[in-house]
Design goal:
The chain is of the alpha/beta class. Among the domains are: about 50-105 and about 145-155 and about 165-180 and about 300-510, Glycosidases (TIM Barrel); about 515-615, Golgi alpha-mannosidase II (Immunoglobulin-like, Sandwich), CATH 2.60.40.1180. Helices cover about 25% and strands about 15% of the residues. It has 16 helices and 21 strands. The strands form six sheets. Strands 1-2-5-12-13-14-15-16 form an eight-stranded parallel barrel, surrounded by four helices. The protein has a five-stranded antiparallel sheet with strand order 17-18-19-21-20. It has a two-stranded antiparallel sheet with strand order 3-4. It is globular, with a radius of gyration of 25 Å. The N and C termini lie far apart (about 55 Å). The model is unreliable at about 1-35 (pLDDT under 50). Keywords: Signal. Pfam families: Alpha-amylase. InterPro entries: GH, GH13_cat_dom, Glyco_hydro_b.
Length: about 625
């Protein structure tokens, strides 16, 4: 495995990027704008929703093995367990500034691994499993735990419950996945509570659609699995013969109503029926309430009663808004403070899913993530950020979950994305501080994990695999054999993680970031000398208790020295007297207070100045 950076390059980058120079002046306040209908701010009253979420791919997090054989078994490549996420690990996560841990891949899903010798389930048919480990989004039993994650397969549910208690004891809250749209083709619940009728058990399979069917059928047709699936490459998996028996065939998870899904389809999953007749003009049948609604409510309530604190809901736009509008309040009757985060990609529907659908938070992927990614790769401008707050999530920015990495997206340090983890410094600062909504980090992001190599089914795509057994090399250096102290990280990685720690701790404790109003400074500075408004982004966050000036330089190779102008209208909005003098303390980089600064913006840098009256 290559080092993150070559030693000579690493040394120079460490000096260039992390030894942040002290800024030298901010100009006197201008009188550029009037208070009326100011286009640089919104009338949104920010709500304190500043969760700091750390996403853990549970199967990979605690794995100490480093063989990393493509398509390797769990014995060859190793697999992380619930018990690996011990008090030491949780304290290290907590000290990063985290409030919530999203444990990804907890529920039992289809896999090629055989657990029969240890009292667990046998392998699934490889014709309908993606990767040796299998996708954690192809659920095999909503009421059970993935056997891979337990030291003792027979007590896997108790080991998960112990992890929940341990997480809470360390001052953190627990989020797990809820996958409502589709299940594995091999779905069968062996762990369901007494009296629960399984999905599909009472379906009328002679019809394509019935309001109370749990699945969609293709009567008279049998499933034809794609020939190019090759879940283990050249090797054969268990029962892999291209003849998975499913008659009648069911519709695939990505709304493919064909008995012969293509290799790029979600062919390993089947679509759940919420009362929408897709093949008849999407006609809805919501009264009486479809059986699937009731079954899914019971599943959510079951896990809420296991004391989880929230659900990250997969592909929420593939499930009717009406279902969410009903089920979320139903679950909150059982646990009022439980949270629902929705994976959503259609900005035109955000308001609908927040207001009608009752979601607490939605992904800000298509807006802020995509815009920041363009900036990080040199193809975008700061106008993308302006569009997010001023148009796309205007009025509900506090409800948008911001991130730069997750299990679906490419690693920042990968050659497929930015190639350099330092590009996250300005982007992550904006992501964490632009609004008062939640922010998320994916495990390994904070040490620059590049996801090099082809793990097997996942392939060389810049992502850390969710389909294969694997050790995550740069994360393992931080894990340091279970010490979780970063003992094997190089100097640049330690500085990068220190940046994340400073940023996230500031984010979680700052009054202005948690619940402050917002004021953009682009218009006030776009004609300023040395202010490259396409690459530099600046704004204010403020409450009665705290005033912050935040500046990010996205340029990879240009040092700028702009004179920052704060207009009179912004000063007045913050409740400050434009005729008085103020000091500016960079609380992100722990720099001493200065006044009348012209700021030296090094490449890929970020600054958070606290503004206080000069004594």
């Amino acid at each position: 495995m290559k080092k993150l950076l070559l030693p000579a390059v690493a040394a120079s980058l460490a000096l260039a990027s992390f030894a942040v120079p002290l800024p030298s002046s901010i100009s006197a306040v201008s009188e550029s704008f009037t208070a009326a209908a100011d286009p640089n701010t919104t009338d949104e009253v920010p709500q304190d929703h500043k969760l700091v979420i750390y996403q853990v791919m549970t199967r990979l997090f605690g794995n100490k093995k480093a063989l990393n054989k493509p398509y390797g078994t769990n014995e060859e490549n190793g697999v992380g367990k619930f018990n690996d996420i011990n008090d030491v690990a949780l304290q290290a996560i907590k000290k990063l500034g985290v409030s919530h841990v999203w444990y990804t891949g907890v529920l039992e899903h289809a896999t090629m691994s055989d657990f029969t010798k240890t009292g667990g389930p046998g392998p699934d048919d490889a014709d309908v499993v993606k990767g040796r480990a299998g996708s954690p989004y192809a659920i095999k039993d909503y009421y059970d735990i993935a056997p891979d994650l337990a030291v003792d397969v027979k007590t896997r549910k108790q080991e998960f419950e112990a992890l929940v208690k341990r997480t809470h004891a360390n001052g953190l809250k627990v989020i797990i996945d809820f996958i409502p749209n589709h299940v594995a083709r091999s779905y069968k619940s062996n762990a369901k509570p007494a009296g629960v009728i399984d999905l599909g058990e009472k379906d009328d399979k002679t019809v394509a659609f019935a309001p109370n069917n749990n699945f969609y059928y293709l009567p008279g047709k049998s499933l034809v699995v794609p020939k190019a699936g090759n879940p283990l490459g050249a090797a054969l998996g268990p029962k892999e013969d291209g003849k998975f028996v499913e008659t009648p065939a069911k519709a695939s998870g990505n709304d493919v109503f064909s008995e012969a899904p293509k290799v790029d389809d979600w062919y390993e999953t089947v679509k759940l029926n919420y009362g929408v007749d897709y093949q008849n003009g999407r006609k809805t049948h919501f009264e009486p309430m479809p059986d699937t609604w009731l079954k899914m409510r019971d599943i959510l309530v079951y896990w809420a009663q296991k004391d989880v604190d929230g659900f990250r809901c997969d592909m929420v736009e593939m499930v009717p808004t009406e279902f969410w509008a009903w089920v979320i309040p139903e679950v909150k009757k059982v646990k009022p403070d439980i949270i629902f985060m929705g994976e959503a990609y259609n900005p035109k529907e955000y308001k609908n899913y927040l207001e009608k659908g009752k979601f607490d938070y939605l992904y800000d992927k298509v807006g802020l993530y995509d815009g920041l990614r363009r900036l990080m790769t040199g193809s975008g401008t700061t106008e993308d950020i302006t569009k997010v707050w001023s148009e796309e999530s205007r009025g509900f920015g506090s409800r948008m979950l911001r991130f730069l990495e997750n299990h679906d997206e490419q690693r920042i340090a990968s050659k497929e994305f930015a190639g350099d983890p330092r590009t996250a410094i300005p982007a992550m600062t904006v992501s964490a501080t632009l609004g008062s909504g939640p922010v998320m980090v994916y495990f390994g992001q904070e040490v620059g994990e590049p996801a090099n190599g082809s793990e097997g089914f996942s392939g060389a795509d810049g992502r850390t695999t969710i389909f294969d057994y694997w050790g995550v090399p740069e994360h393992q250096k931080w894990m340091n054999g279970g010490k979780f102290d970063g003992g094997k990280l190089d100097g640049v990685q330690k500085q990068l993680r220190d940046f994340y720690s400073r940023l996230l701790n500031l984010t979680s404790t700052s009054d202005a970031i948690r619940k402050g109003k917002f004021y953009e400074l682009q218009d006030a500075n776009n004609l300023g000398k040395n202010y490259d408004q396409r690459r530099v982004y600046s704004y204010l966050r403020y409450t009665d208790k705290q005033k912050l000036l935040i500046i990010a330089n996205f340029s990879k190779d240009v040092t700028l020295t702009p004179k920052i102008d704060i207009p009179k209208s912004a000063m007045q909005a913050m409740g400050l007297d434009p005729t008085k003098f103020y000091t500016y303390t960079d609380v992100l980089n722990n720099a001493p207070a200065t006044e009348n600064l012209t700021i030296t913006l090094t490449p890929l840098s970020a600054y958070v100045f606290e503004i206080k009256a000069k004594e």
